[in-house]
């Protein structure tokens, strides 16, 4: 359907359009392909920079801006300016609004009423009389004269405007219309055809360059995958993974087990040393200060001490097992 429409459109076009189309499209394709490839490369680089660099940096800067500018001003507004404004409003109400309201009600309102009464008696009544018996007749006379002058001026302006209109039409409009109809319109049609074909050629070349750029990008991606990614994956899977497993089983696990054994032995030794030091301290205290307790209480104390020591050992064994 589209092919039939394109054939009908080409059949209805002139020879100038057909002669200009192919050379213009070839030149546009040669010029546009490098531009489109550079454009696609810049788009890829721009997306990478936007996702990996500009967006994190923008978030960090936004957080810093809020921490440096927004939060201090919010705190200043909330904890300093708002209470200060409330206090100033209260002071203004007490010191200005209340006295001003009292002055307006008690002083200015009676004075204003008195002045209004005196204005009405001294100004309004004479002004109404002057307007009714002096200004109104004079205004009617001036309006009648103005209407006559306006009619005369209208006639003069209409005559002058008519003469200027026909003069401008004969000297300007008709020559300009002739130039437009017989010179500019044909030239404009030719230029429109050329511009339309150039635009169509550029659009076609841009689409073809897009396909070419896509194919080149896919080829570069495949070359990079088969020369870098696949060998690296093979080396990681077949060399580094077995070597890592062997190092883990042969070196890291024995070292970890030995370290755990040394730590366990060290904890047991330190626990024994603490028990020995405690017993020595008790013996020295008993030798120097004597034992004030009864034999039964001393036996109970020794039993409790032995129970505490055994509990510490059991806790150490449980911690070692964990």
Automatic annotation (TrEMBL):
Q: Where do the record's region annotations for Disordered lie?
A: 289-322
Which keywords accompany this UniProt record? Membrane, Transmembrane, Transmembrane helix
Q: Which parts pass through the membrane?
A: 26-49, 61-80, 86-104, 116-135, 141-166, 208-228
Q: Which domain of life is it from?
A: Bacteria
Name of the protein in question = Integral membrane protein
């Amino acid at each position: 359907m589209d092919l039939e429409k394109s054939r009908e459109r080409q059949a209805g076009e002139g020879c100038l359009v057909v002669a200009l189309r192919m050379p213009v499209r070839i030149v546009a394709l040669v010029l546009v392909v490098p531009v489109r490839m550079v454009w696609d490369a810049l788009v890829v680089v721009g997306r990478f920079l936007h996702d990996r660099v500009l967006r994190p940096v923008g978030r960090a800067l936004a957080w810093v801006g809020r921490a440096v500018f927004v939060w201090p001003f919010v705190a200043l507004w909330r904890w300093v300016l708002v209470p200060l404004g409330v206090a100033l409003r209260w002071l203004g109400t007490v010191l200005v609004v209340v006295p001003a309201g009292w002055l307006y009600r008690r002083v200015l309102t009676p004075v204003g009423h008195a002045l209004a009464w005196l204005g009405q008696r001294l100004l309004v009544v004479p002004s109404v009389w002057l307007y009714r018996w002096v200004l109104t007749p004079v205004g009617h006379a001036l309006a009648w004269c103005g209407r006559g002058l306006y009619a005369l001026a209208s006639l003069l302006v209409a005559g002058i405007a008519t003469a200027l209109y026909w003069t401008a039409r004969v000297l300007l409009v008709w020559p300009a219309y002739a130039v437009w109809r017989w010179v500019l319109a044909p030239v404009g049609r030719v230029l429109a055809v050329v511009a339309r074909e150039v635009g169509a050629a550029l659009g076609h070349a841009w689409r073809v360059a897009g396909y070419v750029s896509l194919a080149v990008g896919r080829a570069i991606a495949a070359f990079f995958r088969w020369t870098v990614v696949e060998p690296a994956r093979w080396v990681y899977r077949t060399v580094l993974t077995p070597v890592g497993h062997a190092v883990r089983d042969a070196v890291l696990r024995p070292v970890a087990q030995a370290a755990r054994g040394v730590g366990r032995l060290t904890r047991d030794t330190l626990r024994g040393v603490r028990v020995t030091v405690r017993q020595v301290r008790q013996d020295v205290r008993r030798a120097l200060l004597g034992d004030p307790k009864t034999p039964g209480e001393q036996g109970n104390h020794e039993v409790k001490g032995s129970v505490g020591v055994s509990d510490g050992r059991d806790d150490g064994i449980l911690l070692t097992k964990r």
